[in-house]
Write a structure and sequence with these properties.
By secondary structure, the protein is mainly α. The chain has 2 domains: about 100 residues, P-loop containing nucleotide triphosphate hydrolases (Rossmann fold, 3-Layer(aba) Sandwich), CATH 3.40.50.300; about 110 residues, 3-Layer(aba) Sandwich (Rossmann fold), CATH 3.40.50.300. Helix content is about 40%, strand content about 10%. The chain has 10 helices and 5 strands. A 3-stranded parallel beta sheet has the order 3-4-5, sandwiched between helices. The protein is globular and about 50 Å long. About 25% of the residues are buried. Its cofactor is [4Fe-4S] cluster. Belongs to the NifH/BchL/ChlL family. It comes from Juniperus formosana var. formosana. One of its GO terms (molecular function) is metal ion binding.
């Protein structure tokens, strides 16, 4: 993500990005070791931050493509049981769509706003295109915290797909970003957050159950 903070709550700090590391090595992939770009965060989970160019100075999609290329060079795709790519919704560009070449499932995360749901259209189009070369089901849709879900309901009526969960408005979710901690880490000192974590565990269980999804 060009914002450079996708992994912040899991690491507690802004980790060096892949694009910054590549630039420091003049894009010599052979000079980069996995320890330079893969960082361990909360729960022993390894994280990578793709990063991106300054505003108006380059293409974020290019960075996405280079990130996938480097991870492949480092054999990272074969070292883990589960790999998650958090990709911007505008995946019509080749770089942002690059992770789909290695995906087993695709999950749309959106909110109840028009713009976010509109961005889901190129995602579904990209999945359809990638599915021509390898099986790539759309697992479904997860709604970010919202007090309403009328537009989400209307969207899935028009573009049928499973709705895995629409989260209710929960104040502590944005607070976790301010604290630089995951909700699961915060629950140690705030047991009242257990019910929030259950929402995410339920979503995880559904994804790990390898649902058929839609193609």
């Amino acid at each position: 993500d060009p914002k450079h903070d996708s992994t912040f709550t899991l690491t507690g700090f802004l980790i060096p990005t892949i694009i910054d590391t590549l630039q420091s090595k003049n894009y010599h992939f052979e000079d980069i070791w996995s320890q330079k770009v893969i960082h361990k965060g909360y729960g022993g989970v390894d994280w990578v931050e793709a990063g991106g160019p300054p505003a108006g100075a380059g293409c974020g999609g290019y960075v996405g493509g280079e990130t996938v290329k480097l991870l492949k060079e480092l054999n990272a795709f074969y070292q883990y049981d589960i790999i998650l790519f958090d990709v911007l919704g505008d995946v019509v560009w080749g770089g942002f769509a690059a992770p789909l070449n290695y995906a087993n499932y695709c999950l749309i995360i959106t909110d109840n706003g028009f713009d976010a749901l509109f961005a889901a259209n190129p995602i579904t189009a990209s999945i359809k295109e990638k599915a021509r070369t390898h099986p790539l089901p759309l697992t479904g849709l997860v709604g970010n915290p919202t007090s309403k879900k009328n537009l989400i309901n209307k969207y899935v009526e028009t573009c049928p797909m499973p709705v895995i969960k629409v989260l209710p408005l929960i104040e502590n979710i944005p607070i976790s970003r301010v604290k630089g901690k995951t909700l699961f880490e915060m629950v140690g000192s705030q047991p009242s957050l257990n019910y929030v974590c259950e929402y995410y565990l339920n979503i995880t269980d559904q994804i790990l159950s390898q649902p058929e999804g839609i193609v």
